[in-house]
Write a structure and sequence with these properties.
heterotrimer; A alpha/beta (about 325); B alpha/beta (about 260); C mainly alpha (about 260); A: about 325 residues; alpha/beta; 7-stranded mixed barrel; C: about 260 residues; mainly alpha; about 85% helix
Chain lengths: ~325, ~260, ~260
């Protein structure tokens, strides 16, 4: 008899532990899906949902804040999305917060991101409508990148012609000012290097992006992190800035060379007078300085890009390969 | 209906007894195989009747019909005046408290100890017995078969003869008025078989029970039978005492002595 | 005419099992209730199966993790490992593997036990002793199997996930909190509830088939062996059939 009581106790423990697992599972799931807590509604209108569905997660500053409750088509350009938000974060969302549709990772589910804006505003209330922010799209990023890339290529092409034309015009030989001559040639070297670098980097980024898009490579994991994506965007912006700089410089240079050419061909004066004209010489020198500065900055940017952890692996590999090639 | 044969059926010197089981026109078949064809039998109070028959002659089917494990195709089986084939489950349970059944293979529950085996019918039939009363009945039944020491053993630990005695104790524990024995000595050595036969007779005298014993073993018949019935082709071929059978020259009877 | 008779036998069996299951509902729900025997059976069927279910579940979780990992690394989504494991175990592998192991252990033991009781006339003896053997032996076992398999599955799932957690930690270090948060983040009630509910049907199928095969066992030791064997085979097949039905039902209900 005692044995039977003991067996029944064991059975009781067994069944209760099973039920406890069930309860824990329900609680954990419920917690994630805000079924048991108090909620309030927010609304936001998007032009394009990019595949957002009911039940998708809502993130506030990267924190799980709720789910998409309802999706309603208002007209051909706007879709109203009702968000079910956890009461706990109500005090932190302001009326001017922006909502955007993002991706949970590179290929993950679509999520609604609520991003706070750094301006004082009242707290949201139930049923408030939030402003929508255009989504950052991987495709757009890639497009920008390739545009920058071709820009850089154009610039380097332009530089090449300029340099050639300067060489041809035999200005170089005539220029006695050694300072200007050496600074010009070193600047040109710098520019060359910079554009080469830029080309290399953009090409490699492109390649990696393609890999990431097809789901291969270590970049795929890295890009699942939104912080990494942010880094990438910054890097691309820097490249573009550098490209703009180079553009400016080359146009300066172009203008100058055109001026020189014009002066030479129009016969407005001899070369000597030209070179003695201190304003022009000064101009030329200043331009050269500019170019040097610009290319230096560009090179620095590129160097910074190299050290960005995102690309460090790639460049390390490149260095290794170069070392190997040298051997 | 029961008086006409009374003079034939009762042994001389015993007082006139009431019939406890009356079987009339019993038919039972399994598919195309007709096992019992118009079988008739009357068992009187405190009478041991041996039903003799070859294997597959339908002896076991007969007693399973009596206790309600099988339903006959037609015919009546009156036990204490109540017709068993017509009974519902609850009524059967009630009448079964008055009947014991000793299975051929003992049918002891091998997941239970001897004590639990014996307690089982007690607890199932009469809920509300005190533990002391149950214990008393168990020990009395085991004492009757001389196996008090085996009370906490498992059936698997017992020998064939002991198993048969435990099964007998379980059959007797409700102190039934009628006991049906399905080949009680089959598979036992002659010495043990004789012990069991003696036990059956002893207990029958002690509790004044009536019995039907199914057997093809003439030693068993000799030891236990007040009356012998030969079951042949689904019918009651002949009946008489053991001495009648021993003297008989009938071919169908002689074969059991060989 | 072999195919015809085989088909007829199959239909016969199907009909008999359905009637047997119907019997469970019509007789089993009426008093008197065999509570004591039910608890004893729950103990044997449930509690005593836990070590086996736990062991297989643990290994399943561990192996599944180690097998999935390389593929996920190739696709660069190693961080999704807990998510995949969670869904795989909770939705399909946990219930089905547990049910199959359960069918192997309990289906055969019920089949063999009832079969040998039938052959040695213990079932008849029970009936003579004023006990409805269907209630006492069959209904209790079916009910115990129906109730215990879900509990076993829940515990098996938990142990499986623990195994998976260890499997993840063989190569990397993952906080258990992060692991389980990720597992549960990917799960919804639509994943857990159908998986949980279908285990009741698995348990019922194992119980009914084991009891049916044992209860109608043919004579002799061979009959007992056959009933144990066919109980396991049929119960395993039924588990897959029920699984198929379950996935279609959840699909129709839009829970997938």
């Amino acid at each position: 008899m005692a044995n039977q009581v003991e067996n029944n106790t064991k059975l009781g423990i067994f069944v209760l532990s099973g039920l406890m697992v069930l309860m824990i599972a329900f609680y954990m799931i419920g917690k994630n899906h805000t079924l048991f807590g108090n909620n309030f509604n927010l609304k936001v209108r998007f032009a394009n949902l990019n595949g957002l569905t009911e039940g998708s997660n809502v993130m506030f500053a990267g924190l799980q804040a709720g789910t998409v409750k309802n999706i309603q088509l208002i007209n051909d350009t706007s879709i109203e999305v009702t968000l079910l938000i956890d009461d706990k974060i109500k005090d932190f969302v302001r009326k001017n917060a922006l909502a955007s549709i993002g991706t949970d990772g590179l290929m993950g589910n679509k999520v609604v991101n609520i991003v706070p804006v750094n301006q004082p505003m009242g707290k949201v209330e139930n049923g408030d409508m939030l402003m929508a922010k255009k989504a950052v799209n991987m495709d757009q990023m890639l497009q920008t990148l390739s545009k920058t890339n071709s820009n850089v290529a154009d610039i380097s092409e332009g530089l090449k012609t300029t340099v050639l034309s300067i060489n041809k015009s035999s200005v170089m030989g005539i220029l006695n000012d050694k300072n200007i001559g050496s600074s010009l040639s070193s600047s040109l070297k710098n520019i060359n290097k910079a554009t080469l670098n830029a080309n290399q980097i953009t090409a490699s980024i492109n390649e990696m992006m393609l890999q990431a898009k097809s789901g291969k490579g270590t970049l795929g994991i890295l890009l699942t992190d939104t912080a990494t994506a942010e880094n990438l965007r910054e890097a691309i912006a820097k490249i573009r800035m550098a490209g703009d700089n180079v553009n400016h410089m080359t146009s300066d240079l172009n203008k100058m060379v055109l001026d020189i050419n014009h002066n030479l061909t129009s016969g407005k004066g001899t070369l000597n007078t030209l070179l003695r004209d201190t304003t022009i010489a000064k101009n030329l020198k200043a331009s050269m300085d500019n170019i040097q500065k610009g290319t230096d900055a560009f090179n620095q940017d590129m160097e910074a890009l190299k050290h960005n952890f995102l690309f460090s692996g790639y460049f390390k590999k490149l260095e290794k390969q170069q070392a190997k090639d040298k051997k | 209906m029961e008086t006409e044969k009374d003079d034939v059926l009762t042994k001389p010197g015993t007082p006139l007894k009431e019939p406890v089981i009356v079987i009339e026109h019993l038919y039972k078949s399994f598919g195309d195989n007709a096992v019992l064809k118009d079988f008739n039998l009357i068992i009187n109070e405190e009478e041991n009747v041996v039903v003799l028959g070859k294997s597959g002659s339908g002896k076991s089917v007969l007693i399973k019909c009596i206790i309600g494990l099988l339903k006959p195709d037609s015919g009546n089986i009156f036990v204490f005046g109540e017709n068993v084939p017509d009974m519902a489950h609850e009524e059967l349970d009630r009448i079964r408290t008055k009947m014991g059944f000793l299975f051929q293979g003992n049918a002891l529950y091998d997941s239970m100890t001897v004590r639990e085996n014996l307690e089982f019918p007690l607890r199932r039939h009469w809920i509300g017995f005190s533990q002391a009363k149950v214990d008393g009945l168990v020990m009395e039944a085991l004492g009757n078969v001389g196996l008090k020491h085996a009370v906490d053993m498992m059936p698997a630990e017992l020998s064939g003869g002991m198993l048969k005695r435990v099964a007998l104790a379980r059959t007797m524990i409700l102190q039934p008025d009628i006991i049906l024995y399905d080949e009680p000595t089959t598979g036992l050595d002659p010495v043990t078989a004789r012990e069991i036969d003696t036990l059956i007779i002893t207990l029958q005298r002690k509790y004044h029970t009536s019995s039907i014993i199914i057997s093809h073993d003439m030693n068993c018949v000799k030891n236990t039978a007040d009356r012998v019935v030969l079951l042949l082709d689904g019918k009651c071929y002949t009946e008489g005492t053991y001495l009648d059978f021993e003297k008989s020259t009938d071919e169908n009877i002689r074969q059991f002595f060989e | 005419m072999a195919p015809f008779s085989q088909t007829k036998k199959f239909l016969d069996d199907t009909g008999s099992i359905s009637r047997f299951a119907g019997h469970f509902f019509s007789i089993g729900i009426k008093p008197r209730y065999e509570i004591k025997e039910l608890l004893a059976q729950c103990y044997i069927i449930g509690y005593k199966s836990l070590p086996l279910i736990g062991l297989t579940g643990f290994i399943m979780g561990l192996v599944l993790t180690m097998q999935l990992r390389p593929s996920l690394i190739i696709y660069g989504v190693e961080s999704k490992l807990p998510v995949m494991i969670g869904i795989a175990i909770v939705r399909e592998i946990g219930p089905v593997i547990t049910a199959l192991i359960f069918a192997g252990k309990i289906g055969s033991s019920i089949g063999a036990e009832l079969g040998s009781m039938k052959v040695t006339e213990q079932i008849d003896a029970m009936e003579v002793s004023g006990t409805n053997p269907f209630k006492y032996l069959v209904a209790t076992r079916i009910l115990a199997a129906t109730l215990m398999l879900p509990v076993l599955t829940l515990l098996g799932d938990a142990i499986s996930l623990f195994g998976a957690y260890l499997g993840v930690n063989i190569h990397t270090v993952t906080n258990y909190h992060l692991f389980f948060t990720q597992v549960f983040q990917s799960l919804s009630f639509g994943d857990v509830l159908p998986a949980f509910i279908k285990t009741f049907f698995f348990g019922f199928a194992v119980g009914v088939i084991g009891c049916y095969k044992g209860y109608f066992s043919s004579k002799g030791t061979r009959g007992v062996g056959n009933s144990a064997n066919s109980a396991v085979v049929l119960a395993s097949v039924m588990i897959f059939v029920i699984d198929l039905l379950a996935v279609q039902i959840t699909d129709v209900l839009g829970l997938n």
